[in-house]
Design a protein that fits this description.
Elements: H1 2-8, H2 17-50, H3 56-90, H4 100-127
Helix pairs in contact: 2-3, 2-4, 3-4
């Protein structure tokens, strides 16, 4: 668990926008690793449960969706530092200190849960008999 503390460490309160962005961008690789592992597990589970034998067109379609999803997730990741900048600008005198780690954990958790929701949406219909 020490490695998680090291990832989330924010030794000093950022003094400017550049420091906020730098902190977030230093964490982007970890976010992408978490999302990649989550996404791969979901794909593997769907393939195992459905016994899917994708043809070339279906495989390309799935790849397009996965790439689009990854790009979208990274665009939303960037909203983390945008929100932190806005919060710090508008709540300057409230004593807010190290909110980057809180926003990172919250955003990453939401991203993982959204990815898992796609897994559930793909599998549940197989169990429901109409």
């Amino acid at each position: 668990m020490n490695w998680i503390k090291n990832i989330l460490k924010q030794d000093v309160e950022p003094e400017n926008t550049k420091q906020i962005i730098r902190w977030w961008e230093a964490k982007r690789l970890y976010y992408n690793l978490i999302m990649t592992v989550t996404g791969l597990l979901c794909v593997i589970i769907v393939l195992l449960v459905t016994g899917a034998d994708l043809n070339r067109k279906e495989a390309l379609s799935a790849m397009f969706f996965i790439i689009f999803y990854g790009i979208s997730a990274n665009v939303l990741y960037s909203s983390g530092w945008v929100i932190e900048i806005l919060v710090r600008k508008n709540l300057k005198d409230t004593g807010i200190k190290k909110i980057g780690p809180l926003f990172f954990i919250t955003g990453t958790t939401i991203s993982v849960l959204l990815t898992l929701a796609f897994l559930i949406l793909a599998i549940v219909p197989l169990w429901i008999k109409f």
